[in-house]
Specification:
It is built from seven helices and 20 strands. With 438 residues, the protein is an alpha+beta fold. Strands 1, 2, 5, 6, 7, 8, 9, 10 and 11 form a nine-stranded mixed β-sheet that branches. A five-stranded mixed β-sheet has the order 18-17-20-16-19. Helix 6 crosses helix 7 (379-392). The longest helix is centred in the C-terminal third of the chain and has 14 residues, at 379-392.
């Protein structure tokens, strides 16, 4: 799965700094130990900034190093203006379904299918008056520590305004999402493309506008304030336009910073909930109810199981979560646990799309005994995967209207050393169903 950036925030209990993955759903404060629920990170476009490593006082040293590298005369530093430049960041998964024939077998006409996948993490400039000279900041986003883009976090450094609207960025992503996909091993007859679990944010990258005098010559330099490297030289007209932009926004900070942390406790009995950062549904350790985040609060989700009491006590069993959509006596199942790639998730979803698991409410006395993998795929992600399976396998797709969605825990027998990676040798001992996973 795609790795995210790390975000700094403050604990609502003790005000200590809490650092967590940008895509995390929960975390724990390292100071007071409180379990915390991360709200807002998936429901809106959030604005983040990367704090500079190279400050204004360090600029003279960096400029001297750059001058020596480029063979310039010893420069005189005249002015340094720090500012934040906006980039759109889009993450997600690209899936391309291909139907065709293997090269050399065209005369037989036997059609084959192939699934191509790609993890996507793209950044594009959101300010148009000044080109930073690159499509992205030049760093792997996963290696950066982010903070919310607020005036408090930015200090006195101004923000360059966002000039490219979101709709235009989304249109640019339509083709870029599927760039660099591996070449198919088939002569293509038909193909379908899908963008899954797509999230968007704005990332403000710190830059330095530096004016130096080299002998009688003036130079305007654009420096990277994280690594201290020279991005490019700019002209006076570009500088004047940039200064106009910055002055207009100097006292303003970007909006939509509603990311917050809330105490992670059961709304029913105030019991502890697991702060697993990858979980989208958590069981209360006291009353056993299942809770998920929705509309900025925790709400209960119907949780069922397809097991028996002896299976709950069997150490060779592990319960894997599936999202079940139910309507008009028909059911479909989508795996809710995290796997190493969207291709494997697709294979599992296609296999169990129309499975029949006899499910019932989990007996209270067995809730805490069940060994289960976390729910790593949210309900809307399951809906997206169900749509892909339906459109590529001629399966009937359920309409969202009039359907109910619940979580079903299905017992699998442990036979392989790693449950999440290869899934080798796992079987589903439900009624007469005994099936090995791919």
């Amino acid at each position: 799965m795609i790795r995210s950036c790390y975000v700094s925030h403050h604990c609502p209990q003790c005000s200590g700094e809490v650092v967590f993955d940008q895509g995390a759903t929960g975390t724990r404060c390292r100071y007071c130990g409180a379990g915390l629920l991360v709200l807002g990170s998936r429901s809106m476009w959030l604005n983040f900034l990367i704090k500079p490593v190279v400050g204004v006082r360090d600029t003279a040293h960096e400029v001297t190093r750059i001058a020596m590298k480029n063979g310039w005369k010893p420069p005189l530093l005249r002015s340094v203006i720090p500012f934040y430049f906006p980039f759109y960041r889009t993450t997600g998964h690209a899936i391309k379904w291909i139907k065709g024939v293997k090269p050399g077998l065209e005369i037989h006409g036997d059609a084959s299918e192939e699934i191509l996948t790609r993890h996507v993490d793209l950044m594009r400039p959101a300010h148009m008056d000044l080109s930073p000279g690159l499509f992205s900041p030049g760093y792997r986003a996963q290696s950066l520590n982010l903070a919310l883009a607020t005036r408090e976090n930015a200090g006195k450094a101004p923000f360059a305004p966002i000039q490219k609207d979101r709709e235009e960025h989304s249109r640019d992503m339509e083709e870029a999402f599927f760039d660099s996909m591996p070449e198919p091993g088939l002569k293509v007859w038909e193909e379908r493309c899908f963008r899954l679990w797509e999230t968007n944010s704005v990332l403000f990258f710190p830059l330095l506008l530096v004016e130096i005098r080299e002998g009688r010559q003036m130079r305007l330099l654009l420096l990277d304030a994280v690594g201290g490297s020279l991005i490019r030289q700019i002209g006076h007209e570009e500088m004047e336009t940039l200064l106009d932009n910055l002055e207009l926004r100097e006292s303003r900070s970007p909006g939509e910073t509603r990311l917050k942390l809330a105490p992670l406790m059961c709304p029913e009995c105030a019991g502890d909930l697991d702060p697993d950062p990858s979980a989208h549904l958590r069981f209360c350790k006291a009353c056993g109810r299942g809770w998920e985040e929705g509309a900025g609060r925790l709400r209960e989700r119907e949780c069922l199981w397809a097991g028996t009491r002896p299976q709950a006590r069997d150490t060779s069993m592990i319960f894997l979560p599936f999202w079940r959509r139910h309507a008009d006596d028909r059911e479909l199942y989508i795996p809710a646990f995290s796997v190493r790639s969207p291709r494997l998730l697709y294979n599992l979803a296609a296999r169990y799309y129309h499975a029949q698991f006899p499910a019932e409410p989990i007996p209270y006395e067995n809730r805490l005994r069940i060994q289960s993998l976390p729910v790593g795929l949210p309900p809307d992600g399951a809906d997206e995967m169900a749509d892909v399976v339906a459109k590529t396998n001629a399966r009937e797709q359920f309409q969202k209207k009039g359907t109910s969605q619940s979580l079903v825990l299905v017992p699998f027998r442990k036979k392989g050393p790693d449950l999440v990676e290869p899934f080798k040798g796992l079987a589903v001992p439900i009624s007469s169903l005994e099936a090995d996973l791919p």
